[in-house]
Amino acid sequence: MAHGVSVLALLVVLGTSTLARAQEQELPVSEVAPKIFVHVGEVALMTRENDGATANVGFIVGDKAVAVIDTGGSVREGERLLAAIRARTDKPIRYVINTHGHPDHVFGNAAFVGSGTVFVGHWNLPQALAVRGPFYTDAFRRIMGEQLMEGVRMIAPTLLVDGTTKLDLGSRTLTVTSWPTAHSDNDLTVLDEQTGTLFAGDLLFLAHIPVLDGSLRGWLKVTDELGTLPAQRVVPGHGPVSEWPGALADQRRYLTKLAADIRALIARGEPITAAASTAAASERPVWQLFEDYNARNATSAYSEIEWE
Length: 308
Prior knowledge:
By secondary structure, the protein is of the alpha/beta class. It is built from 9 helices and 13 strands. The longest helix has 24 residues, at 2-25.
């Protein structure tokens, strides 16, 4: 009898341990609106210590299917996101929508390949991944290590968005919109019409300094156009879920200040090195990772604006 009890106790312990491991594997998510779940990434550079989990990722559950918006900075994060989905629904994952092609948003894609899942992206995303993919994987193999980069591959979308596309999840329609060159040359947004929740990708940064990899003038224009979208809340690419359209204010101010400072430097005949060290310096206290990205933003903006 005692032997039977000890075996039973061991099975209970093993079951509890397995459950704990399963729960640990799930990416922590919050339900920001009915059936819309978001993991807010760490405001940090991608490293092996944080699994590359620096971007916001999420998923939307309809009556018939699920859409994933961005998959994270490693296959490990993608697998943890998949575990979080499966803990909440067994509905098929019909779409994986990449808001753009930067590593922190697409390196988890491989976790979602198969079972009829369709990858969705900007019409220019396949080209962007083809051109930059080898550089990204090589660079982050050095930064994050071979183990964390295992399984990472560039998976191009097969459903390309040029303008606006509607996706039906069953009694839930998503409006997916492609944008002109702004943060990058392949930005998408996703609007859940039912709740007015906008996934803005990296067209919107909060707390994390905006990162320019496209066109400063284009981004300012797109920022104004974004503000007209009929959303109630926004999931930025980085930073906290926030009310709409007030969430645009900090980024608009930063981009406007950056452009004004660059134009003033060019008018005075100052070199690009001056832009890197002084442009938008007044914004330093407002943003995290300012020292990591502002000089790069200024250099890119100078190269663009000097030919106006």
